Structures are given as structure tokens and as C-alpha cells.
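Service request form, structural biology core

Requester: graduate student, group of Dr. S.
Request type: structure prediction, single chain
Budget code: on file
Notes: please return the result as C-alpha cells.

Sequence provided:
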Amino acid sequence: MNKILFLIFFVVQAVVAQKLSNDDFLKYQDKVSFHINGNLDSAFYYVNKIKLSKEAEQLTYAFASEAYLYQLKEYSDTLNSNNSFETSLLYLDKINAPFVKKKAKSKLLNFKGLINWKRKKLSDAINAYKEAKRLAIEVDDKVLAVKCSNNMALILAQVGNFELAIKSVKESDSITDKIKYLYEKESFLKAKSSVYMKLGSFYEAYYSVNKKPTLLDSSELYYKKTIIYSKNLLDRKLKAQINLGNIYVKKSDLISAEKQYLASLVLAQQSNFTTPITTLYYNLGYVNYGKRKYDKALIYFNKVDSLSNHETNKIELTNSMYYLAKIHNEYDDYGKAEKYLAIYKDKFKENENLIAEETLKVNNIIANAEIKEDLNILKNEIKQKKSLLLFSKVLIVSIFCGLIYFLYKNYKAKKAAHIKVNKLIEEFKQK
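Core staff response, request fulfilled:
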């Protein structure tokens, strides 16, 4: 069936194909690269422009990049991704010139590495990157060689080899500066922002296992550089700003963290990025809770509850219930505290595996272990306070009843004495 579809496709391709100049191909390729991690619709648009070509080299790139775009979708379209990649391989076989074939294959293998990386097949991904880099060096494609190095660095960081990952990306940064003339202006800025974003996240992740304060300083520096180079890359700028806020939280600089989150919230709302808005409400709630501004924290955590997309914001929603319980406990509203604690326990049970996985990621502010450790303390605290409140109520009622009884008894005694005195006076008058 697939062979029939490919045959039909080739017939249609032969009818509509046109000559695409090399300049146009490079221009569209840069556009695909520029939009590939931001606006998928725009990336698909430029891929479709290249697909109108009749050159096998250009079509190899078009279908390989399309395969990766399908994998990048919110709900990965693995079937179409595989089909596009198979089509790319068919066009690669049609290239006769060895040099051109190597050049096309290096790009195809880089996309293969990216696809396997997204599918969490890390060993397959790194092998594809290595081969892609080797071919890129052979055909003197320095830009692609740098991309492959950066992609391999991501995997090194993912498996915990942060020092090697950082070293690799810094080398790529140095090479990028030397070959700046090979980039369009927008592509160069994107390449630099990508390098600095990786360095910021690597240093932050390294801090999670090493705890050296200087690692946070380095992370802060590179996130700030990312923001400078991401003026036209709003999604990356937003992510860098949020991560910078997280760095301030880890440094216990909650005032700077709040400023960074508020600036990010404005950018997210202006750019209509819905998922980060919920995350930012959660972060702002956490920061204000840390500053003991419980009224503000309550507003933000309630916003998380009202806006949360249950598919994409499960962790923020779950942890918000925990902090709502803590705030109501501070307000001595033990009924609501117990209610939110019960919701937290239910949601935690639903998402336990996801939460355990997410705590390893860079952008998760609150370690799950911290919450787990505090959970029993909070439960016992609420229980003790409720018992104390009940005892206080019983004591107050007992004292009140005793006081009423004492006053009533005193009143009766006074009344009896008054009657007795009046009786004596009356008797005295008669005598």
C-alpha cells in the first residue's frame, strides 16, 4: 500500500515539479531552520515550498525536515513522520553526484538524530549525529557540524555528563563566531541564542547535582544572554525569562524572581502563549507564599486551578492544591485546608509517575521530595490545631456555662437575701 502511495506521489511530483534555484532553496532552508522550534505552521509552509522542487537533493531535505516537524507536533504524528522520512531516503537514492549525496545525507542524518532524540532513543540519536557531523566535515558544512555538536551536547547533558556537554557547546559557540559570515543575520542570532539557552540550562541542571553557587551565577549569565539574542524569538525569550526567574528562586532572591515572572506573564499574554501562563501563575503563587504574602499567593494559586489545562499543567495544578492547603492552614481555616489536602493527595496519586519524572527537569521549581517531607507535618499540624481549636471551644463553652450558672446562683441568693431583708424590715415596722 505504501509503495502505491509513493508511486502516486512521484507521478504527481513529476507533473507539478519546478526548478527551484539554489538561492531560493537556501533561503527556504534558513526559514525552516528559523521556525522549526517556534512556529511549526510557518516551518511546514516553507517545507512545502521546497517540496515543489524537482531536485532530488532539495527534496531529500524537504521530506527529512518534514519528518521531524511531524514528530515535533504537540501530539507526535509518528506515522506521517516515518512516511516522510522514507520518502526522503528514496530521493537520497536518486542523487548521483557523490559530493552532493554526502551533503544531503548529512542533513538527513541530523534530522534522523533529532527524531530519535524526540522519541527518547538516545543511543540511536547520538550515532546519527556522529555520522551526520562526520559527513558535514567532509563536505565542509561548518554550520551543520556545529548543529550536530550542539545536538550531541543535549544528549550528554541528558545522561548527566554536564562538564563535557558545556565544553562541547562552548566550542560550538567559538566556531559560530568564526563562521558568522556563513549565516543570515536572523539565523546567526538564532544560533547564538540556542547556544546560550543550552549553556544556561546545562549549568542550572549541573547545579541540581553539584550545588555550587557559581554554577547558578553562570546559568544566570547565559539566560540573560539568551534574552538579548532572542528579541525575535518570543517563545525562546519567554522560556529564558522564566528560567531566569527560577534561578532567582534558587538564589532565594524572591523579589527579582517575582519581577522576572511578572515580565514573563506580560510577554506570554501578549503572545497568546497559554500553557506558560498557568506555569507563571503557579510560580508567582510560590514566590508570594515564600514572601508570606498569603493573600496574593492565594489569588495566583486559585488562578492555576481555574485556568489549568489538565493535560499540560498537571504538576502545577497538583502542587497548587498543596499550597492552598498550607495557606488556609495559616488562616486557621482548617476545613478548607483539609479539603485541599485531600484533593492534593488524589491528584498526586493520579500523576505520581509524571511528577517524579518532572522533578528532574530544569524548569520545576519545587522538588517533589520537599513536598512529600512536609506533607505529614502539615497533616499532623492541621489535626493538632483542629484538636486544640475543639478543646478551646469546649473550654470556652464550659467557662461560659459556669459563669452563667454562677451569675444565676448569685442572682438567686441575692433575691432570697433581699426577700429576707424586706421581711425583717416589715416585721420591724409592725413591732
